[in-house]
């Protein structure tokens, strides 16, 4: 059909179409803006919810950790395993042990403290610092049981953490043989003990939520 | 409601039709009064579109052939055919029917036209003047192709006889459902012949004409369908007898009307209502004779409808989409509220927890790590010489001839460590790494075999028994003899003094040295 279009016959429908398009456009635009705004607000709220939930879970986990570990931690602090090295306690313990055992000879020396590299990657070495101090003692024993008693008593009195590295036990006078005299040492024991202590970089490990 | 105008050449009839039922019918004569009445009719009735069906004597039908072509070539061929057959009228049409089965396989085409257009022009001008949308001008015989189905006449040669006015009978020849020829014949018969005889006579005239036009062969069968008022059927059946190639069947108006779905009465006493039903029942019947300028108001109406539908569809779509977005927005608002309520609940719980844990000055993770580190110390660094001394002393107790003068013991994660090397390392720089592995207890024992008299062999046997028992105890996974009481190895020097003057400890003591390593976990089957 190539006849001329009588636009005046189509004027009203075209106006109606234009109006409909305008209304539709405005409706869609408004609806889209509304949905976008609502969605954005929802996403923000959901992000905030996730954040609060994460904080809560962390705090809950921390509470669980505290309940499991803080009593033990405080105990270790009291015993001098965590914190400043209690050398005086060790020395006093040795003195106390010998008062009980009355060993004829008990000489000791404690080497300077050295930092200890802890080969356990799971611990943060920036926060937790391990130290080792080596104590060497030379003890005159009536019998080898004295050595066992000395080590046991030392451990009991100090509650510290030490490791017996090595010991040499030999007859103090092979030619003489065993003498049953509490003032005479039959055996000579030379042992090395490593005392371990732990310190925490408190400024870095501070609980920021602490009141 | 649809409107049909039916022009017979003398009169214009107007029907209103809705759902198979004919309502008001009007008749207008082809004179000035008729035209005035027609104008009033168009002016008074709503401006609904009309379909104009024609049944005129002055309508010609030609069968021709058209070569296969496309596009402009095809249009040019069609225009040429139309001009060739119906040069003087604009009311003409060309219908492509089927491809011929022989020769070039051209198309068989039916070309038809109104040879006296002036009869119709006046009415069409009135329609246009009143801007009534004219959907099309339709040829009654071509519309009649729609009757063949209900007559069961679309699969063979059929000659359909109908009467749309008092003075003429139309005979339309259909070949397997396609119109080939149609003629309107004035009714002329005398009393002796009767209507049936007239029909029979005209049928034979038509057959001869069809044969002359080579549209039918003498041997072809023809089925004649006479559509007639019910009261004429008995007479027709009585008098119309065919032969082997000619078969008559008479069908009444009411029967055909029922088959076509007409409800109520036919608009006139003639068959035009049947054709009108076929035409009006179709949603988009193909236009035959109305040129585009005559249909301009119809096209504009369609355009208005289309634009209005587009407007409505636009609004509906916008409402749908916009509505969906609004619903989505409301849902988001609802979810937002839920999220906020939930966040507030968690915040309260978090605040309570915070108050509880804020009393601790250090972070929980580091508290745990510190305790765990100490546990590692405890689990790996608890060895003392006690266990090894206890095991060894049991064996010594059963071998009084074996004495111990010195023991060097160490605990190390390296199972190959040696006590003498530890002693040598004393004073040197110590390693500064704590190895979180179980310590192995390793010791060297130095002593003498005594009380063996002068029997070197006895000393060796005593020592061997001692060593064997150490090995058999299961506590050691390494028992190495570093020095035997008498080194009787062929590569070593051996000295002695067995003179009668030789006495003393030299003859009664033989030194030995052993290296022992405690088995991890103790003897098999025995815990720690």
Q: Would you give an account of this structure?
A:
Chain A has 211 residues and is an alpha+beta fold. Chain A has 4 helices and 5 strands; from the N terminus they run H-H-E-E-E-H-E-E-H. In chain A, strands 1, 2, 3, 4 and 5 form a 5-stranded antiparallel sheet that branches. Chain A is rod-shaped, with a radius of gyration of 40 Å. The mean pLDDT of chain A is 87. In chain B, the strands form 4 sheets. In chain B, strands 3-2-1-4-8 form a 5-stranded mixed sheet, sandwiched between helices. Chain B has a 5-stranded mixed sheet with strand order 11-10-9-12-13. The longest helix of chain B is centred in the middle third of the chain and has 62 residues. Chain B contains 15 helices and 18 strands. In chain B, helix 8 packs parallel to helix 9. Chains A and B meet through helix 1, strand 2, strand 3, helix 3 and strand 4 of A and helix 10, helix 11, helix 12, strand 14 and helix 13 of B. Strand 2 of chain A pairs parallel with strand 15 of chain B.
Shape of chain A: rod-shaped
The major β-sheet of chain B equals:
5 strands, mixed
Radius of gyration of chain A from CA coordinates: 40 Å
Q: Which structural class matches the secondary elements of chain B?
A: alpha+beta
Radius of gyration of chain B: 63 Å
Helix/strand/pairing category of chain A: alpha+beta
Unreliably modeled segments of chain A: none
Mean pLDDT of chain B: 88
Low-confidence stretches of chain B: none
- Tell the overall outline of chain B: rod-shaped
Number of distinct beta strands of chain A: 5
Largest sheet descriptor of chain A: 5 strands, antiparallel
Binned strand content of chain B: 25-35%
Give the terminus-to-terminus CA distance of chain B.
107 Å
Which percent range describes the beta-strand content of chain A? 15-25%
**Percentage of residues assigned to helices of chain B:** 25-40%
Q: What average pLDDT do the residues of chain A reach?
A: 87
Q: What oligomeric state is this? A: heterodimer
Task: List the secondary-structure elements of chain A in sequence, H or E.
Answer: HHEEEHEEH
């Amino acid at each position: 059909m190539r006849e001329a279009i009588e636009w005046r016959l189509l004027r009203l429908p075209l106006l109606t179409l234009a109006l409909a398009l305008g209304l539709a456009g405005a409706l869609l635009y408004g609806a889209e803006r509304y949905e976008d705004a609502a969605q954005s607000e929802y996403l923000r709220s959901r992000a905030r919810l996730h954040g609060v939930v994460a904080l809560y879970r962390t705090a809950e986990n921390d509470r669980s950790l505290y309940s499991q570990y803080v009593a033990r931690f405080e105990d270790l602090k009291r015993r001098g395993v965590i914190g400043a090295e209690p050398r005086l306690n060790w020395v006093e313990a040795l003195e106390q042990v010998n008062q009980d055992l009355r060993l004829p000879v008990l000489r000791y020396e404690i080497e300077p403290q050295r930092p200890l590299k802890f080969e356990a990657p799971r611990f943060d070495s920036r926060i937790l610092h391990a130290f080792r101090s080596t104590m060497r003692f030379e003890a005159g024993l009536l019998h080898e049981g004295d050595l066992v008693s000395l080590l046991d008593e030392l451990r009991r009195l100090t509650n510290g953490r030490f490791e017996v590295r090595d010991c040499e036990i030999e007859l103090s006078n092979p030619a003489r043989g065993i003498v049953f005299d509490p003032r005479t040492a039959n055996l000579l024991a030379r042992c090395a003990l490593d005392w371990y202590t732990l310190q925490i970089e408190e400024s870095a490990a501070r609980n920021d939520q602490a009141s | 409601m649809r409107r049909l105008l039916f022009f017979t050449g003398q009169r214009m009839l107007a029907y209103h039709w809705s759902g198979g039922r004919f309502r008001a019918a009007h008749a207008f004569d082809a004179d000035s009064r008729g035209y005035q009445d027609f104008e009033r009719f168009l002016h008074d009735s709503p401006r609904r579109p009309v379909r104009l069906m024609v049944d005129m004597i002055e309508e010609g039908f030609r069968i021709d052939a058209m070569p296969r072509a496309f596009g402009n070539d095809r249009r040019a061929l069609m225009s040429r055919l139309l001009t060739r057959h119906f040069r003087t009228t604009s009311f003409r049409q060309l219908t492509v029917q089927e491809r011929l089965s022989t020769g070039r396989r051209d198309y068989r085409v039916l070309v038809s036209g109104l040879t006296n257009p002036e009869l119709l022009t006046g009415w069409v001008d009135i329609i246009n003047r009143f801007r009534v949308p004219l959907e099309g001008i339709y040829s009654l015989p071509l519309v009649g192709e729609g009757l063949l189905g209900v007559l069961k006449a679309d699969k063979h040669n059929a000659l359909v006889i109908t009467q749309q006015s008092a003075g003429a009978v139309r005979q339309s020849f259909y070949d397997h459902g396609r119109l080939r020829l149609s003629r309107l014949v004035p009714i002329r018969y005398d009393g002796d012949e009767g209507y049936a005889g007239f029909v029979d006579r005209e049928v034979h005239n038509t057959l001869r004409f069809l044969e002359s036009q080579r549209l039918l062969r003498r041997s072809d069968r023809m089925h004649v369908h006479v559509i007639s008022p019910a009261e004429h059927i008995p007479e027709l059946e009585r008098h119309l007898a065919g032969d082997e190639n000619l078969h008559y069947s008479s069908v009444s108006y009411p029967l055909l009307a029922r088959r076509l779905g007409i409800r109520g009465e036919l608009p006139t006493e003639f068959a035009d209502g049947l054709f009108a039903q076929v035409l009006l029942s179709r949603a988009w019947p193909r236009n035959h004779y109305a040129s585009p300028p005559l249909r301009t108001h119809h096209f504009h109406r369609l355009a208005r409808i289309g634009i209005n539908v587009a407007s409505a569809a636009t609004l509906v779509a916008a409402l749908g989409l916009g509505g969906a977005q609004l619903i989505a927005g409301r849902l988001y608002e609802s979810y937002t509220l839920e999220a906020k309520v939930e966040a507030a609940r968690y915040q309260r719980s978090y605040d309570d927890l915070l108050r509880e844990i804020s009393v601790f000055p250090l972070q929980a993770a580091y508290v745990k790590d510190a305790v765990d580190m100490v546990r590692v110390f405890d689990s790996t660094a608890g060895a003392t010489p006690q266990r090894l001394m206890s095991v060894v002393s049991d064996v010594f107790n059963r071998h009084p001839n074996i004495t111990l003068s010195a023991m060097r013991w160490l605990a190390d994660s390296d199972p190959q460590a040696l006590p003498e090397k530890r002693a040598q390392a004393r004073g040197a720089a110590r390693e500064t790494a704590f190895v979180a592995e179980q310590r192995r207890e390793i010791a060297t024992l130095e002593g003498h075999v005594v009380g063996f008299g002068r029997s070197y062999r006895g000393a060796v046997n005593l020592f061997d028994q001692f060593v064997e028992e150490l090995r058999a105890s299961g506590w050691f996974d390494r028992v190495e003899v570093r020095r035997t009481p008498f080194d009787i190895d062929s590569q070593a020097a051996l000295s002695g003094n067995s003179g009668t003057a030789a006495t003393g400890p030299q003859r009664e003591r033989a030194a030995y040295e052993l290296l022992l390593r405690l088995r991890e976990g103790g003897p098999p089957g025995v815990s720690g």
